[in-house]
Amino acid sequence: MELFSKKIDGRKIVVIESDRIDAACAVEFKREILSLIDEGTEQLVLDLGHVKYIDSSGLGAIVGVFKSMGQQASFCIIGLNKAVERMFQLTRMDRVFNIHKTLDELA
Description:
This protein has helices spanning about 25-40, 55-70, 80-90, and strands at about 5-10, 10-15, 20, 45, 55, 75-80, 100. By secondary structure, the chain is α/β, with parallel strands linked by helices. The longest helix has 14 residues, at about 55-70. The protein is globular, with a radius of gyration of 12 Å.
């Protein structure tokens, strides 16, 4: 899983550079994101702009990260392309997550 993180305005931005989040990498994806949370992240922005495909395992990993953050933390997703956005809509995850097109929309 290729990802990198940066901190902007107190938010940890995690950019997923892989084009897929699926069963083959979902466990690794979740483990890497959770390790960032263990570093004390209270505001996490997941940038999925490079992701072209996500399956139920990938969505499950994102839900797991979301639950691990707890109710006091802030979690949002940015940069969904049409195919990934459609998967979030079909599974109604677009109603669960705070989703924005760009980081600028969060200001």
